[in-house]
Amino acid sequence: MVKAKQTLTSLISAGALVLAQNTFSQEIAKNSKEISSLAPKNAFVRASWHSRYMGTFGFTLSDGPVTQNDLGFDIGKVSYNLWTNYDFDKGNGKGLNEIDNSLVATFQTKHLTIQPDFYWYTFPGVDFPDAFTFGLAVSTRNLPLDLKLYGTKSYGSSEGSLAQLSIGKSFQLNKRVSFNLNSALTYNNSYFVHGSGFTVVSAGANVNINLGKGYSLNTGIRSQKALESLGGTFKDHAAIFDFSLKKSF
């Protein structure tokens, strides 16, 4: 009887030890997964050249060539991006005259992508104070056309708002090459531009080439036309040619 009790006790102890080890292993795996989810992913660096600095929101900031380089990465559902503008036009403050930081969160359903964002704009070497914005984009996914509605509001040196409706279509020509068409209707109400609001229509096309080993090449053209006069030094019509090389990690 005593031997049987000892055997039963040993079995219970061994079972408890195995259970404890399994629980400990599960906790380690869970914690490792949580830590892994916070590690930066989808990192990239990109160098781009543009024939002029034409903002996507209805104004031209430089008539001369510029380079606009950026880098970014994702942590969980949040993407960080550091963006710079170097201007070769002396009339617009030649040199590095803009550095922007942004955070964008991404949430997806079957047919929608929802992205709240925050941007912090700084302008070194230029007589223009810092500004920051909060925005929200809602775009379609897994549909024949890419539709996007975007709204944002700026604070600080430039207080205004903007609304933009865009439509696009991508064509996968082969495994490495895709062709994209896009157009947008933008209403700008004092968003980085002083004065009354104005409306801009824009359209563009670009080709993206996957070069392999994480490298990709993108080149395109974009044009915009104001439906109302912009006034001041801003142009009521502008076109831009751009070229970029991207390395993903």
Largest sheet data: 12 strands, antiparallel, barrel
Question: Could you tell me how far the N terminus lies from the C terminus, measured between alpha carbons in angstroms?
Answer: 66 Å
Q: Quick check: average pLDDT?
A: 86
Radius of gyration: 26 Å
Backbone structural class: mainly beta
How many extended strands?
A: 15
Portion of residues within helices? 10-25%
Biggest sheet strand line-up: 1-4-5-6-8-9-10-11-12-13-14-15
CATH architecture label name of the largest domain: Beta Barrel
* Number of separate helices: 1
Tally of discrete structural domains: 2
- What percent strand? over 45%
The CATH class designation of the largest domain is Mainly Beta
| H/E series | HEEEEEEEEEEEEEEE
Q: In terms of per-residue confidence, which ranges show pLDDT below 50 for 5 or more consecutive residues? A: none
**Would you tell me which CATH topology of the largest domain applies?**
Porin
Would you write up a description of this structure?
This protein has one helix at residues 2-37, and strands spanning 41-50, 53-55, 59-62, 66-75, 78-87, 95-105, 107-108, 112-122, 131-140, 146-156, 160-172, 177-189, 198-212, 215-226, 237-248. With 249 residues, it is mainly beta. The chain has two domains: 1-37; 41-248, Beta Barrel (Porin). The strands form two sheets. It has a twelve-stranded antiparallel barrel. Strands 2-3 form a two-stranded antiparallel ribbon. It is elongated.
